[in-house]
Amino acid sequence: MSIELKALGPAAFAGLFVVGATIGISNLVAGTTAGAPTVKSVVAPTQAQLAKEIITGQNYFASSCSGCHGSDGDGEGDAPSLRDEDMSDSDIADTIRMGSGRMPPFGQIYNAQHIHELVLYIRTLK
Ligand code: HEC
Q: Ligand 1: which of 68, 81, 86, 117 to mutate, most ligand atoms within 8 Å of CB?
């Protein structure tokens, strides 16, 4: 890691500064344990990256999920509400990948990154 940072030079230090400023928010959204910015935190997604992933997930949700789960995952369709979902991230990801009951599997349509973005979006539903 230190080698990579050295190679990046000034850009890495600028990045550190930005991450340091946004670390509280990105930790909150990512659901990771809050703490002092460490080298590991440098590779955590920035707020902007995270926002982009959530918006991408929202687009996937609108095209593939809202017909059954409602436009904001409120369960207005024929499927359960996904608001305040108490399943773990990995259980949600497995459900999307493999389907469940009357829900079709999406593992052929969405790769791991797409599913990660869907999970991030579902986590914003309150
Ligand atoms: C054809 C309708 C349909 C579509 C499309 C659909 N679902 Fe579902 N989903 C269901 C039904 C019905 C269930 C209830 C589970 C069961 O029947 O076993 C469910 C369950 C779930 C659950 C588990 C909820 C819980 O608390 O048990 C998650 C998470 C979920 N769906 C996410 C998604 C996502 C994300 C998408 C889009 C990629 C999606 N679903 C698309 C019908 C659908």
A: 68
